[in-house]
Design goal:
This protein has about 210 residues and is mostly helical. It has one domain (about 5-205). It has 8 helices and no strands. Helix 2 runs parallel beside helix 8. The protein is globular, with a radius of gyration of 18 Å. It is a multi-pass membrane protein. Belongs to the nicotinamide ribonucleoside (NR) uptake permease (TC 4.B.1) family. Required for nicotinamide riboside transport across the inner membrane. InterPro entries: NMN_transpt_PnuC.
Length: about 210
Amino acid sequence: MSESAWWDITLAGLASMSGWEVFAALLGIGYILFAARESQWCWPLAFISTIIYTVLFWENQLPMQALLNLYYIGMAVYGFILWHRHENQTAELNIHSWPWQYHLIFIATGGFLSLIFGYYLSTHATQYPYLDAFVMVFSVMNTVLMARKVLQNWLYWQVINSSAIVLYALTGFYATIVMFSIYLFLAMAGYFKWRKLLAAQHQTRTA
């Protein structure tokens, strides 16, 4: 495909973007910004954004992404309750780091499930089944890490978001590509922010 033809396709995709997709993408960016600051209000933004994305992905034959966002709706409620308790000091939930053994189990489990779901999707009329399954499986697993404030969740989001960008580029979700590109930057910023907060927690305990 020539460069001019690719540019024409990109412009046509941008012109046909849904207003709902743009709105959901903006809410998603807000979610990451608030999450990096450990603000409980990140979760209501995620709740609304994921409702919109559930409908959009289902209509565009990305069933795993639709199910993923349906799951996110529940996780937004769970995350808000968990972080709200912490902010009101009725329970303590601190940022913490996982040992390498946990990461090996996490990656192996996610890879295995991605292959299973990818194979299942390949037998049905879905787009890019293995990539769709990979993004879905690791996003589901990593959202739990984020809600539980595991530091390395931000590093996993780097890989997941990069894979999601490829998937959405192939399927024409242009506003979502912009959102996930911003996610890449914000996830790295979130990692350094949480690492700094974790160091401050250690200093407080040893003081």
